[in-house]
Amino acid sequence: MAFKKSLHNFTVVEAQNLALGQNGAVIIDGTDEITGPFIAVTGLEASVVDTSECTTNLSGTVPATFKIPEGTTIYGQFDSIELDSGSVIAYYK
To answer: Phi and psi of 17, rounded to 5°?
Structure first.
């Protein structure tokens, strides 16, 4: 479950930990859209993210899909994530 309080209610260290995903995580290994918000996504195996079905803060020309190699972590604001293949661990914001 995502934390609903403002980060202003915590010490600096506690707020930094929450911002780095210390609020829990979920393993995503199917093709359903999973709602976050997430702060980081790590590939547990080579994975393909369907950006046309995600809500993120990616800017510019965003391809319809992008790959996350096994062991690679991508940081950003992911309000939802949908995979075409693979599995990832998504860290709650």
So the answer is: -65, -45
Instruction: List beta partners, residue 9.
Output: none
Q: Compute the distance between CA of residue 87 and CA of residue 9 in angstroms, rounded to an integer.
A: 34
54 located within any domain:
yes
Helix, strand, coil % in the chain, rounded to nearest 5? 15, 45, 40
pLDDT of residue 1: 43
Where the chain has pLDDT below 70, the residues are 1-9, 15-21
What CATH code is carried by the domain that includes residue 52? 2.60.120
H or E stretch at 17: helix 12-19
pTM: 0.75
Query: Is the separation of the CB atoms in 54 and 80 below 8 Å?
Result: yes
